[in-house]
Request: fold
Amino acid sequence: MFPVQLMTVRKSRNGTVRSVFLTQENSDYCSAVLDLFRTHIGTSREEIEREIRILELKIQNPKIIRGLALIMFRFSKLTPPANLNAELVRSTIFKHTKVPPISPESREQILAKVAEELNSSVDEVSRSMYADKENEQILEAIPNISYDELAKKFNMEQIETVILKCLTMSVKMKEGINRIVRKARSLGLLYTLQSDSVESSITLSGPLMIKEHSERYGYKFALLVRFLMKFANWEMDAQVNLKNIQGKAEYAYHLDSSVSEYTGSVSEVNHGVYHSYFDDNPEPVQVMGNKFYADYSLSLGKKKIMILVTRPNYYEEDYSIMESIRKAGHDCALFCIVESGQKCPKGANCMKSEFNFTDAYEFLLKRQEYEEKKNTSIEQVKASNAVNNKKKLSEEMIKHLRELYPDSIAMVDYLEFMGFSPAEALIEAGYEVKWHGLRIEAKK
Reply:
C-alpha cells in the first residue's frame, strides 16, 4: 500500500469518495515510468530519483508518477555498488584519519592505506564507503511487467491506501461469506456477522477504530481486502475518515466485484517456497449438513489435511470446528497466531505474528511420519499376535490359569511368557476380559 500522501481520490459534495484508477486512456503515466526504469539499469537510485522528480514536473498529476515509481522500486532488484562491508570501510578510514584531509592527495593517501589493509583497491574502497545507503544502491534488474499490469498494481494499492483510513467496513455476499469470516479470524480482525435467507454480511472494525497497534491492524485489514478481490458477486461499503478543506470528514466508499476490471487477478502475498505446497482455495467440507471452509489444505502423499488458522480470541470455537471436521472423517490441523504480549492458549500449536508455511509444512510432515511409524508398529504387533494365537492353549495351561486366578497380573505375565496374546488367550480359556486403561482384568 502507498503512503497516505500518495492517495489519489475524488470527493463529492454528497459525502462519497472514489479512488482514481489508471486505465488505457492514461497509460502514458505507466509508459513514462516503466521506460525511465528500463533506460536506467546500472545507475544509482539517487540518479533515478532525480529523473523521477524531473518527470513529475512534466506531468499533470505528480502523485501518480511517484506511486508508480514506488511500485517499480519495490519489485526491482537493487544491489550495493561494491562488495566490501561499508561499516568496516568507514571504521578503517576513521582509524587512519587523525585529522580531516585538506587536499585530494592526502585523501588518496588515506584511501590507499585502507585499501592495503583490506586487501582491496582504492576504487573499491571509494565505492564501498556508503554502499549500505539506500540512494547508493544500483538498479540491476526490473520486473518483467507490462504497462497494463503496472496500472493494475497501482489501482490495487490505491484501494488499500484508502482502506487504511477506514472506520467500519461491511461486506455482502450471496454465498461464500464463510471464507471471508475465516480469513478475518485468521488475521485477528474484529467483526460481527449478520445473515438471512437471501445473503450474509460481515461488518469489520477498521484501523481507525483500533487504539493500539493500528498500523499492524491496518496491514492485516488490507490483506483481507486483497483476499476479497479474489471472489465474485460481492459488495463492500466502508466509512472512511479523510482530510478536506475544513480538516477531516467521514466519506462513504463503495466497491464491488466489478472493480476487478481495474485491479485484474489479485494474488495474496507469497511467503516463500513452501507457500506453493498449500492450496489457499480448498473445497468446503460437509459436517452435519453445514459447509466448513478451511483456510488452506495440504496434500501429503494420499492424505489431504484441512488447515484452520485462528487467533487466541477464537481458539476454543475453532478447536470445536476442527474436532467436528475430524469426526466427519477429514484430517484437520489448527494453528493459532499470537502477537507480542499475547499468551498461547493451553495445548495450542502457536506461531508468532503470521502463519509460517515452512513451519506448518515441516510440523505436519513430521506428524504424518510419526503416525505412519506408529501404525506400522501396531500392524506388526497385530500380525505377531495373530501368529501366536494360532496356537491352542493346552489343558495344562488352562489348568495353570485356574490356579493363578484371580491374580490377573500373574495370568497375563504367564501368557506373555508362553508367547500368547493375553486378551485373546484368556477369552479362549473361558474368561471375560475387562480393560482398565492398559491393564487387563480376568473375570469368570
About this structure: The chain has a mean pLDDT of 85. Residues 278-369 form one domain. The first helix runs from residue 28 to 38. DSSP finds 15 helices and 18 strands in the chain.
